[in-house]
Amino acid sequence: MFKFRRQVLKSLVAVLSAPALARAQVAGAPIRIAMIESMSGPFANTGEAVFRNLYWAVERVNARGGVKLPASSGGSRPLVLDKYDNKGQNEEALSALRAAIDDGARFVVQGNNSATAAALIDAINKHNEREPARRVIFLNYSATDPILTNEKCSYWHFRFDAHADMRMAALMEVIKEDQAISSVYLLGQDYSFGQAVLREAKVQLAAQRPDVKIVGDELHPLGRVKDFLPYATKIKASGAQAVITGNWGNDLTLLVKAAKEVGFEGKFYTFYGNALGAPAAIGDAGLGKVVAVADWLPNVPGTASEGFYQSFRQRFPKPADDYVHMRMQLLIEALAQSIEKAASLDAVAVAAQLERAQVSLGGQTGHMRAADHQFQQPLVVAVMDRQGAPGVKFDVEGSGYGFRVIKQISASRAEQPSTCKMVRPA
């Protein structure tokens, strides 16, 4: 069922391949969602992991009869998720966007690179102004550079992940209580998001832990470092008790592997230390030392949360496929809800409903803030431990290691101010 169009890899069409949808028999014309992400290159694993999450969410909507619209708008219609490979390049992402629009997509999802998200926001703003009959809405699941809902905020862009400043504030709730830390090493990827993480780390350390000395402040090329041993050696030599990093994908996995090799015994305060190979790479050396912040984790207490995770594992039983994100599920639920409330696929009408979306799933509830289109939701901070330890029922990717929640932060406490000056269509 795969096809090639303009050298863009397309997905298996959900409307044809989802077993749950076959039972639902949704007859209306499909509503196309284009996922523009790295499906090849060093971050292909992250793209495929995102696709599984969104695909599962689309299956769930279609299994209950699709998106329900009035007969004048085509009646009940299934969602279709197509994937476009941006090859890790902004220009490729813009080409993919043009192809997706020509293919009939009016909803775009992306998130694994903030620089790419910024390029898509600019392109969509221009496109929507030029072609109001083919307007596009951009739903962002992971691009967390704060600028995207501040200076670069757009009526057509909605972010469902907590941005970097929100995540850093959550991590700082734990760091400020960890009196064993007297020095930290800041390390990140050299692009907008990585820069934002280190910048905010310095600001919040000065405010929350002015006694902590920063002994390293370093950026490295995104996705191009194959050997992190030189970085790990510098970290160990600095005498730091902890590393603060926003690294993700292979840039995180290779970093923690190298740190283990050189014998670094400090803590890692991470945004993404809980998935995609990191726990297995760290092994026993990470027990009680690797800390991660997230919107949700499998070991969040509660029967609703556990049931949600168990249903994902039933759908994707391979341990290697264990990379589930609640926010991606809430994104698709919010989109389906907003289309139904708008009773139309008109982008202005759907965006007006997305601005006030409130969604719940698996015990997690969140709402979109209309002022800047930043989703507001609880956050959790967790520490790595062995599966079976108190609070660690589930491991990550069959590694035998999971994350025990040590801090839960309400949506109201996680909220941060915004400088957005939203321009809405007339």
UniProtKB/TrEMBL annotation:
Keywords: Signal. Residues 30-388 form the Leucine-binding protein domain. It comes from the Bacteria. Gene3D superfamilies: 3.40.50.2300. Pfam families: Peripla_BP_6 (PF13458). Residues 1-22 form the signal peptide. SUPFAM superfamilies: Periplasmic binding protein-like I. Belongs to the leucine-binding protein family. This is Branched-chain amino acid ABC transporter substrate-binding protein. It comes from Rhodoferax koreensis.
